[in-house]
Amino acid sequence: MKPYPVTQWKNDCGDRMNVKELKFPHDTMRKGQREIMDELNEFMERPVKKVVMLRAETGFGKTATAIYASARVANRIFYVAPRKNLREQAEMTARLLAEKNPEYEFEIITLFGRNNYLCVETGETADTCINSMIYRCPAAPTNVKKGAEIYYEDIYITRDGTIRGFTPGAPYCEYYRTKAKVVSMNNNPKKIQIIILTTAYFISEFIYSREITPADIVILDEAHNIEHELVNAVKFEISERALSSIFREKYTFPKRAVEEDELKVVLGQLRIELERYVEDAKTQLQTTYMTKREQERLIRNAMRAMRLISIIEYLLKRNDLIPDFIEKRTKGGETYKILRVRVLNVDDIFKEMINATTAKDGTMFLMSATLPEKDEMGLGIDAFENKYFVGKSGWKKSRRPVIILKGNRINYANQDDIMPTVLEQIIYLLNEVIPENWNVVIHSHTIKNTKMFEAGISSQTTRTVLTHRMGDTNTGEEKADVVLSRFKELKNTGAVLISPSMTEGVSFDDDICRLQFIVKAPFPSMNDVWIKKKTEQDKNFPKKIARITLEQMIGRIIRNENDYGLTVIFDTAVAMLLPKGEKPFAFQNVKFVNTFSDVAKIIKKFVEIGAEENKTKTPTLISSVRIKIGA
User: Fold this and answer.
1) CATH code for residues 1-117+178-234+346-394
2) DSSP string spanning 113-161?
3) Which among 19, 235, 356, 526 counts the fewest CB atoms within 10 Å?
């Protein structure tokens, strides 16, 4: 594909921007990409502090569009994504862009937390590194103190400009070397750095250590979750058991929830105790003989204490703290508390991030399939020049019908009475209507529902049942990504995946899943004190969160132009979430049906058309609109 036309803009200093003639990473652009590319490129080239917002349907090609448009005008790009599959997709796209444009030097860096690197001395994960904790790693720069230097290749440069070398003869620590490339400045106009990292890592490094310096462009994938990610990044959460383990004596929180002033006193005292513990740990490591296991335990506790100290220091500066205590029970029946402290609003953090990113006429690029309009985000975007783009894939809406069964209006008060009936209906469909080789996903909404559905379907059908119970730490079950991988390996076997949390960031494309059930409208629980406080600020807040979550859920099974899938919802309350006016991708083919028998007929017809399509290998018009209800 030919390079995109180049225009030239002058910045405030009169210098020309480095707008590059690059070929698109793929052989062709999709129709939707071409429709917005001219306008997007023109806006990206403006030499001003700006925010780009791209809402694009599943399959639009957001990753390729964002990386390509950014690389044309910037020499350094951060691609920030919360999930591994998104980061892998970004890395693949970046490498394709490099292959298409060999005249440029591409440096593609994937940066993770310390626990993803091996120590060159011990061969074990670097998160238990003794030397990094006391800042004397022989593989790191000499006399390094975290946050005080900029590293690059074989040298590092201190803030006062002094140039020093690495310890002679020592092997290089891969974590430091990778970070050196990230924080170094790129002044070569023919070199393009694309740095891929997790959302949590990017935010925590920005807030606490400031080691990630301003980039030309920061691309935030799954940007609809940015408020949630920011709140979690500055969340303080620790249990009485963890503190008892650190201090080697029983530690107990107050018996009641504390007010903000009291909370700050508690946090201040805890910080002093943690700081004292860290200093004692450093001394012990240097002066006391310990076994390797004892060392590792002490290091883990000390590093966790250091992380808690940095969070506490940040929280003590805030005036919008929301504390709550969560009660947990051990397998032995012992009750203990977890103290959780969150901030109510993060718009100030986000504005600071944008300011840092756009310090030199840079860009914050937000993208998501469910990115709200800018006036809904409430994160201070209006303070910057911004533009909202909507990308459409052009796929037929008839291939992604959504049917909603009337009658059930489920809430937290009545769900225990209604869910057994929903389970009976799903079991009937699995046994009598849905083909034995069709995989099914059930979005169960809660851990309690997950357990009930797992028991019922396992005992009353012959299907393989996989579950993921987010937050249930005492089950010893496999992690979500492992369960998801197993489910994908079982495609065309009739497997059933039951999960309360796989609502976004996963793909059930093609034969992996053709049918998904949503048992309840995904309204957030008002038992969460943070949700409750946000709702006091904005009464529509729960509805906004639920609408985004529902749209994400529906989009899990339609992942490419020839894909097709049916979504069945058992809760009429979702009617409150359907947007008025122009409908986004997920809500363009929604039908309400009166009875469960109507649901069964639609699924049966959908199965028949799907079987015909698989047999002829020719896409057909799959549409619940063409099925006569009640016939």
Assistant:
1) 3.40.50.300
2) -GGGSB-TTTSSBGGG-HHHHTT--TTSBTT--TTSEEEETTEEEETTS
3) 526
Which of the two residues, 435 and 213, has the higher pLDDT score?
435
User: Mean of the pLDDT values across residues 81-104?
Assistant: 91
Angle at alpha carbon of residue 42, lines to 221 and 219, rounded to 5°: 15
The one-letter amino acid at 19:
V
Q: Quote the tokens at residue 239.
A: 């249990």
Please give the C-alpha separations between residue 402 and each of 67, 132, 386, 518, 558, in angstroms, as whole numbers: 32, 53, 34, 10, 12
Alpha carbons 329 and 351: distance in angstroms, whole number: 40
Contacts of 38 by beta carbon, 8 Å cutoff, 6+ apart: none
Contact 219, 70 (CB under 8 A): yes
Q: Do residues 33 and 61 touch, judged by C-beta distance below 8 A?
A: yes
Length of the chain: 631
Number of H helices and E strands in the chain, helices first, is 18, 20
Pull the structure tokens for residue 95. Answer: 């490498």
Per-residue pLDDT band for 245 (boundaries 50, 70, 90) equals confident
| Residues whose CB is less than 8 angstroms from the CB of residue 401 and which lie 6 or more positions away in sequence, other chains included | 566, 567, 589, 590, 591, 602, 606, 622, 623, 624, 625
The helix or strand, by DSSP H or E, that contains position 76, with its residue range, turns out to be: strand 76-81
Please give the angle made by the CA atoms of 516, 517 and 518, to the nearest 5 degrees: 125
Please compute Rg for the chain using Cα positions. 26
Amino acid making up residue 356: A
- Where in the chain are the domains? 1-117+178-234+346-394, 235-343, 397-626
In the prediction, which pLDDT does 57 show? Answer: 81
Do domains 1-117+178-234+346-394 and 397-626 share one topology? The answer is: yes
Q: Residues with Cβ < 8 Å from 234, sequence gap 6 or more?
A: 207, 311, 314, 315, 342, 343, 346, 349
φ and ψ at residue 576, rounded to 5 degrees? -65, -20
Helix then strand then coil, in percent of the chain rounded to 5, is 45, 20, 40
- Residue pair 220/134 in contact by the 8 Å Cβ criterion: no
- In the block, tokens 């444009």 appear at 101
User: Rounded to an integer, what distance in angstroms lies between the CA atom of residue 524 and that of residue 412?
Assistant: 10
Provide the pairing of β-strand 163-165 with 155-158. Answer: antiparallel
Cα(505)–Cα(84) distance, integer angstroms: 9
Residues 6+ apart with CB under 8 A from 198: 80, 81, 82, 87, 112, 113
Q: Per-residue pLDDT tens for 341-369? A: 899 998 888 888 888 887 777 889 999 98
The b-or-e profile of 200-216 (16+ CB within 10 A means b, else e) is: ebbbbbbbbeebbebbb
Give the tens place of pLDDT for each residue, 408-446: 899 888 989 999 999 999 999 999 999 998 999 999 988
Q: What are phi and psi of 506, to 5 degrees?
A: -125, 155
